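Researcher: We plan to redesign the surface later, but first we want a full-length starting point. Tokens attached.
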């Protein structure tokens, strides 16, 4: 736990002006709003029937947001934004589990024509983030401008390895416990 805690310490990101996107409580996340100019599309994982983050990002940046959830198939409404709902979840491999479809970041980006675009991502998937990140190729992170991640769990050694992998591409601008 201590090793993971040491890895996720917040640092200073030059020029970052943090701004909240999404709901006022659960579902709201901070991004360096002034540094999002190159973003061409967004991905919002684990939406549970609502996606204020995706709607805010889409309206602000005028980009499409791909929403993913295979547990709650309620498609959110986003007046003034462009959102595309997918009844699929993120996972470490393309598969079907208990009748629910899963695919990798690479697979989903490719299916949507976003494989080489600059992206922004929010992910809150109750623990599936760890394995999904750990098996992702570098291109997934190289094309991601910023990521909002709600991590779940602290007790597995692979969590430290995953965090180190992410830090090769990202700086920690904000931590919320």
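Model: Full-length starting sequence:
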């Amino acid at each position: 736990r201590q090793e993971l805690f040491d890895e996720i310490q917040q640092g200073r990101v030059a020029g970052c002006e943090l701004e909240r996107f999404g709901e006022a409580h659960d579902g709201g996340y901070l991004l360096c709003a002034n540094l999002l100019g190159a973003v061409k599309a967004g991905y919002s994982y684990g939406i549970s029937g609502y996606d204020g983050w995706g709607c805010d990002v889409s309206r602000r940046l005028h980009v499409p947001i791909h929403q993913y959830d295979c547990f709650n198939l309620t498609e959110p409404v986003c007046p003034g934004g462009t959102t595309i709902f997918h009844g699929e979840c993120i996972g470490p491999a393309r598969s079907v589990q208990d009748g629910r479809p899963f695919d990798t970041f690479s697979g989903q980006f490719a299916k949507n024509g976003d494989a080489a675009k600059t992206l922004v991502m929010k992910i809150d998937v109750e623990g599936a983030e760890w394995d999904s990140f750990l098996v992702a190729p570098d291109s997934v992170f190289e094309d991601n401008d910023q990521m909002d991640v709600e991590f779940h769990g602290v007790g597995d050694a692979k969590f430290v390895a995953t965090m180190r992998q992410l830090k090769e591409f990202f700086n920690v601008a904000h931590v919320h416990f």
